[in-house]
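Consider this:
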Amino acid sequence: MLLMTAISLGPSPARRDALTDRIRLLVAATITYNVVEAIAAITAGTLASSTALIGFGLDSVIEVSSAAAVAWQFSASEYTVREAREQTTLRIIAVSFFALAAYVTFDAVRALMGTVEAERSVFGIVLASLSLVVMPFLSAAQRRAGRELGSATAVADSKQTLLCTYLSAVLLVGLVLNATLGWSWADPIAALVIAAIALKEGRDAWQGKGCCAPSAAAAAPSADAETDACGCRPGCDCCP
């Protein structure tokens, strides 16, 4: 009886297929938007010598690699194959976060040492504002689908997309302060905040934190695993 109840907690095969198609569509939209955003941000950042803008653009590149890894996982038609690819995809996402954090930290420290001073970038302000509108929608939609499907990689990739929202806000503050008050140091400080967030999300992805798959093994309570009101175990992020 307990096993039958646990199995029923997961989505039906038809619902699983629908969620898989939704995630594929959202991943495709994320890749498309981030390719355009990366080109625009890196170009604008190079012209303005803005570490934060370049870091933001590189995050878009990493978001593309992260989404591409999820697309690879969900390109398999068989559910068991997608499950087998889960851990590899999480590792790719984690390494992407770590690479971003390392590069942005290096470039921000270099800027703070006075090697280069960021110029004003009105285009960067517009780009950051646009991302503040687009990214939360994509992240929330993929996160909901990933949680229901029980896919840690879909949830981790949605966090990468959500990170882009945080970065947009941090970037916007730094660019506005530089443009209005001439505080060029605000740009590399914003970049360091971006690096810190990326490091945390990379660690979470590497540890597999994101979502507890609604499988029989995951849903069935055990004697040594405590669950909260919504059935989540410690270290899981599957609750709304």
About this structure: The mean pLDDT is 74.
